[in-house]
Fold each of these.
Amino acid sequence: TMYFQQGSTDPSAYEKAREKFFRTKDLVSKIGSVSVHCTIDERRLAGYCQACGVLTFSSDTSSLQPSPYSIIHNCLKSAHCQAIVKIFLEDNQSNNLPDQFRQSVLRELFQKAQQGNDAVAEVCFKVCACNTVREIRQGQPISVQFNQLFLKPT
């Protein structure tokens, strides 16, 4: 998990990982996720496959439309983060993005905002608001206090 969070400088590493995850997914579909010799967490495997899909180019023609994950990943890399707000607003209606993913995007934006990037700070505040709206709609307790966004590192 940490490998994907830190990122590799070698794109072929993601290609190799993608190949292995998808091969495992194919085998699981043939033999099942529970056997005498091993147990596969299919949700985690699906998450790794999705992460590899974001980080690698696919020759699959059905993936010509970039996923919200790949758009967000590219926005975070380029520091042009305004599209993230649009995706999060749309996701407040569809509930497709996992809460943990939304929180990790907010954490990454928050770190960039604390480094003094004012444009990212504004996006960070908007993403925080989107996450708060999502939590309220789902009847969850609010996880981030808005005043935390105004704290400067000491």
Amino acid sequence: MAQPPPVPNSRLELRISCHQLYDADVLSKSDPRVAVFLRHTSGRYASTSWTSIGQTETIDNNLNPKFTTPFIIDYYFEEEILLKFRVYDVDNDGRLEDQDFLGEVEMSVGDIVSAPGGSYTWKL
């Protein structure tokens, strides 16, 4: 008989903000958007590939955006889950990968959960 899928220890809501982003535009400020990816590196869902879990909205002309789009993820205490945040300057309606790339950061969900106040800061 097959084992039932593991039950997450909790669900986490992630909210993203950026500070002092690079200004990639000439006549205005960058228009940032963040793409979020997830990868399980251990446990039942272990994988070597990243899965997109969504994108924030684009905030025009802002080097210190506070995005309103929440990301809900299942957290399994005994498993390592990595997150990747890729920041782009969006200048048109084309594919996100064709926009100006501002930087990225990777971290474990454990880093966020164990951070004081549940807020984690990292430099791109």
Amino acid sequence: MRVGVVGGGVVGCSTAYYLSQLSPSVSVTLFEGCGIACHSSGKAGGFLARKWSDETDLAPLCHASYELHKELAERYPGAITTHPVETYRVDTTEEKGDGRSWALDWINRHHVTGVKRLDGPPHTCKTDPARLCQHLHKMSGCKTVTQYVTHITLNSDSVTVHSSGAANEKEETDIKDGGIWKFDKVVIAMGPWTIPFLRREFPSCGIPDIPPQTRAHSIVFKLQEGDEIGTHKDLPDPACLFLYHTGLDGKVVDPELYPCDISTVYVCGEVDYEPLPPTPDLISPDRAACTRLKHQVEFTLPDLGRAAVVREQACYLPDSPDHLPLIGEVSGGDGRVFVGTGHTFWGILNGPGTGKCLAELVLAGECTTCDVTKYNPARFS
């Protein structure tokens, strides 16, 4: 069987990987015009939570995918990681508080007004999303085409994929000019570009148009020598902080702060709804939003005020009309075109689970990893 996978993010790389694991004889070709994990999968914080969607329709997928993250880390130690983390809600204010001490003795007690533990190991951990994608891509052994897919057409005996262009001609690629590729089945995992693509190429899919998708900003800090990310004084695990910061104008914002290592901190927040550019390489952050984000978190961790900002970035969160993922056959695709998208901010968590489900559907026509009935794209048709 020949399978084409469109998209080199966590869903696309996971699909290619599990196709190769479940059926080594399958020939897989992955298309990515901008590089592996070049968009949200390479800009995410990598926070994973097993139970945080238990009261929603996402619960089966979250549980299954969380376990797959653990399995992958055990199978590829060092290359793929799932570091256990504590999680806390921290309330801060720009006005000075009473300076009381908190359980997290490394945060700025003069601006913190409340601390509450949310969860911890074994139910929360953190991975490196870019390394996860790159290693799954590598271990899949798939052929890679550094091209954008422009059209997909159905033929009696194949699915034809048309590709052209590349965001970075310096990247290794199997083709320099536009190409026409024939497959038995195709998986579309283009993140926030997926639904516009499906509506254009498969108008009978029935998926409604969606409003502008969320653009989220993030910053990566590198602390100065001697500054370190603290840990809970009674626990060895680093902490991910979910902040609720009240400004002088009374407005509350909710940035998130994740330690990457002892001297690197990832912070995300400040969302807006700018139109989605045609390709990932055209996305640029709003510098004012990044400045506001930096200002907000400095009231929690004083060391960030003198830390170097090594990266300011933005990415779009893939959504769907009903805010549930799309996993399964595309209506109008004759049982040969599949889709995986719409995970919003749980994309890294649910990437491996989605990829394995798609691989099972492509190879066997049924999914055993978890029940994906509620994610079936046919719900719109």
